[in-house]
């Protein structure tokens, strides 16, 4: 029964957060502010789960810390990246296709994001209502923290490297292929993927946490094939030098970079 309380409370909080975000977006005249609340929504769910859940207090605190650090960093990064900027081309194109009425934005942008947050956060919700971690479960929990750490490092360093690259006028019109970006064309998305598999492993340290595996699988699909890497590849493919970058650099999972003029099988085009 406590799971129902946590799940319903999380859904209410997410709907409220999306409603507030919509009001702010209307006042600012741009909908990309919804990206800033992506990470914050999960932090709110983790907080609700920790307060309302009746599961292991230690695991609740671990989960709250992991989600809090990841979500707050991501939201701050996206706020800094979008503040004072115009509308995101993705949302502009979506509204051009379906209309600019308020109801369209709610149905096409804010409602889907809120529902996605609720589904993907199921490991957080169920972890807060599961039995205490015991025995080999502690190894699973520790592995989850390790995978999460790798993910946060990749995401944070990748974002920082790209931000520094874009800030240098000498790099205008060129392709970022240094640092982590020489090992993966999307190191930040790879890091995000690791974060969610790490969170799932923490939840999987006690039954029925393993049953929530569809959540990180869904997140991985979105990052690799949905609105993440694949969509970005489409917009970048015509940029000078990007085709060569695709041939030299792994698509998603980091691999040693290839020398210029050589190709990796299957990496010559977006996957």
TrEMBL record:
UniProt cross-references to InterPro entries, sorted A to Z: UstE-like
Specify one Pfam family: DUF1295
Respond yes or no to whether keyword Transmembrane helix is given for this record.
yes
User: What is the residue range of the signal peptide feature?
Assistant: none
Q: Where are the transmembrane segments?
A: 35-54, 61-79, 136-157, 213-232
Keywords from UniProt, A to Z, are: Membrane, Transmembrane, Transmembrane helix
**GO CC: one term?**
membrane
- Matches recorded under Gene3D superfamilies: 1.20.120.1630
Q: What is this protein called?
A: DUF1295 domain-containing protein
């Amino acid at each position: 029964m406590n799971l129902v309380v946590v799940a319903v409370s999380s859904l209410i909080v997410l709907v409220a957060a999306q409603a507030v975000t919509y009001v702010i977006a209307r006042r600012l005249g741009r909908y990309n502010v919804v990206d800033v609340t992506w990470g914050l929504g999960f932090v709110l769910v983790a907080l609700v789960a920790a307060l309302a859940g009746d599961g292991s207090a230690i695991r609740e605190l671990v989960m709250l810390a992991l989600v809090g650090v990841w979500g707050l960093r991501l939201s701050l990064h996206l706020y800094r990246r979008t503040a004072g900027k115009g509308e995101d081309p993705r949302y502009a194109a979506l509204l051009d296709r379906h209309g600019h009425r308020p109801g369209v934005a709610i149905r096409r942008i804010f409602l889907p994001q809120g529902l996605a947050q609720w589904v993907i956060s199921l490991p957080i919700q169920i972890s807060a209502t599961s039995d205490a971690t015991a025995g080999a479960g502690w190894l699973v929990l520790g592995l989850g923290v390790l995978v999460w750490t790798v993910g946060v490092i990749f995401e944070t360093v990748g974002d920082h490297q790209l931000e520094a690259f874009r800030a240098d006028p000498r790099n205008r019109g060129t392709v970022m292929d240094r640092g982590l970006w020489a090992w993966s064309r999307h190191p930040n998305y790879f890091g995000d993927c690791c974060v969610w598999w790490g969170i799932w492993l923490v939840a999987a340290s006690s039954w029925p946490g393993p049953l929530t595996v569809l959540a990180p699988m869904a997140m991985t699909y979105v990052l690799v094939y949905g609105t993440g890497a694949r969509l970005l590849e489409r917009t970048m493919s015509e940029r000078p030098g990007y085709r060569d970058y695709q041939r030299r650099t792994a698509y998603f999972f980091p691999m040693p970079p290839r020398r210029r003029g050589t190709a990796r099988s299957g990496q010559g085009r977006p996957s």
